Each structure stands twice: as C-alpha cells, then as structure tokens.
Amino acid sequence: KELIENSLDAASSQIIVEILNGGLDLVKVVDNGTGMESAELGLAFQRHATSKLGSDEDLDRVYTLGFRGEALPSIAAVSQIEVCTREREVNEGWAMTLDWGRIMSQGPRGCPPGTSISISNLFQNVPARRKFLKSNMAEVGRIKEVICRYAMINPRVGFQLSVDGRKVIQSSGGGESQEAIAVVFGVDVARTLMEVSPECSGGVYTLRGYISPPSLHRSNRRHIIFFVNGRWVRSRMLSVALEEAYHGLLPQGRYPLAVLDINVPYEDVDVNVHPAKQEVRFRSDRQVFVTVQRAVRN
Ligand code: ADP
Ligand code: MG
Prior knowledge:
8-stranded mixed sheet, 15 strands, binds magnesium ion
C-alpha cells in the first residue's frame, strides 16, 4: 500500500506490482513516475525524511498520500531491498541495495525513468512478525484489495498485479472510471451503476463516483468504497450517510454498491489520525454527512 501511494504521489501513469509467495519472498513495484535524484535516494530511507512537506503549514493541508516519511525506512528495517530510480531528464539511473536497513551498495545503473523497488525476504530478521502474518492467500487478498481500490479511483493510471507469475489484475489507465470499476466489480455491475456527478452535491464539499440503482444490492457492506480527496478511507459515518440516502429503497438487510470520492478543502480534513492513514477526521462531520446523503439521494 505504501509503495503504491509513493508511486501515485510521484505522478506515475503506470504501476506494475509483482508478488511471490504472498509477498514474503518478493514485493516488487515498478512505476514510471518522477523518480528520485541520485543524491536523495539514500535520504529516502532515513526516518521521517519526506519530500512532501515544504513547510510546517503544509501539515494542515496534506494533498499527497504520504507525508510522514516512515514507510521506506520501516520496510527497509525488516527486508532486503533493491531499488533503482531515474529522473526523466537524467541519462542514467541510480541503484542501491539495502539489507535490514543498512545500505550495502550503490552506484549508477541504466534503467527507464521512474522507480523500481524490490522487497525480498520480508520479516526474515523478525521471525515473530513472520509468524503473525495471515495465510498466503489472505495476504494476497489484501494486496489485491489495495490495488483494486487505487485502480478504481485512478482511472488514468494503468495498474498491473501478478501473483506468483500469473497476471491477476490489469487496468488500462485509459481514463474511463467505469472501465476501472469493471476490473473490480465486473463489467455487468459496472455498466449498471449510476454516476454521481459533482453537481449533485450543491455545496462546498462535492461527491463524485458511482452508486448502484435500488434494484442492485448486496448482503454486506463490502462493496461500499469511500475515498476522501483520492485517499481510500474506512468510515462508518460515510457508510451510514450513504445507507440513509437509500432509506426505503432497498429490502431489509441489503446494502448498496458504491465507489465514491468526497472532495473537501485540504484544510478541512485531518489525515494524520491513523497509523495507516485509513481514517480521517473532518472539521465538520455534519457537513460531510449531509453532502453524501444529499448527493446520493439526488
Ligand atoms: P513519504 O511518502 O511519507 O514522504 P516514504 O518513506 O514513503 O515517505 O518515502 C520517502 C520519500 O522517498 C518520499 O517523500 C519521496 O520523496 C521518495 N519516494 C519514495 N518512493 C518514491 C517513488 N516511487 N517515486 C519517487 N519518489 C519516491
Ligand atoms: Mg510514502
């Protein structure tokens, strides 16, 4: 998740993920984004080093997915890493290997523009952590979920996931939201969904995305997916607002499908309340609730 967020923050239009043995043997993410300056690659693996905050005030309006500078050093501490990065306007890339957080080697290397990072032998130096991982299948499921979520909300980015050499997810990056949603929900469902255009919101906060007509529903909330300013979040409040909009339209115990992104001014949302950045706090829950309910109902 953190690696994909880095690739998205780097304005990539293509993100290719490869995993072996549930990610334990290998997690490889290759993007075609901005890349890093050779002199800064080492810095990226230092604790709390981030390029995403220009000043203290930027913390009050975070518009990137990352901002804490914790992901790369945390991952590096428990794995062996091979990374190569190249800025578009530079002729040559810069490669580095790290073992359990320590830089082992670095130097120039030919590579396409962007960044490729391979994480091997995850948690091998922390057997206790390795023991507490879920089954191989469960870990693959979670990786798939992360990629599906980001593919849906980033239709201009082509995503690819291969698991043990087999391609399991592919989105074209052609820019069509419905096509990206079809990758996850299937073509028939995607075709049935109704668009929520920003005009339905009628306020400062706007909602955009897709929802199911009352004739299409599910027995659980697993198909209700929310983003806040493009960040995937879990929120009971948002889900309740959605369900209230469907009040009286669905049979008892049934839930709508939805892929919705709520846009709020950056200073009205605090993204720094959860370790994995999956929960957010709004300045006004009420205003967000009303926006979702009204837009969906409209
Ligand atoms: P954060 O994303 O919070 O800044 P990370 O530890 O995830 O912290 O990354 C540290 C820094 O490394 C980022 O701020 C960014 O400058 C750089 N970086 C990481 N991944 C990439 C990437 N795929 N492309 C370009 N730069 C990257
Ligand atoms: Mg990051």
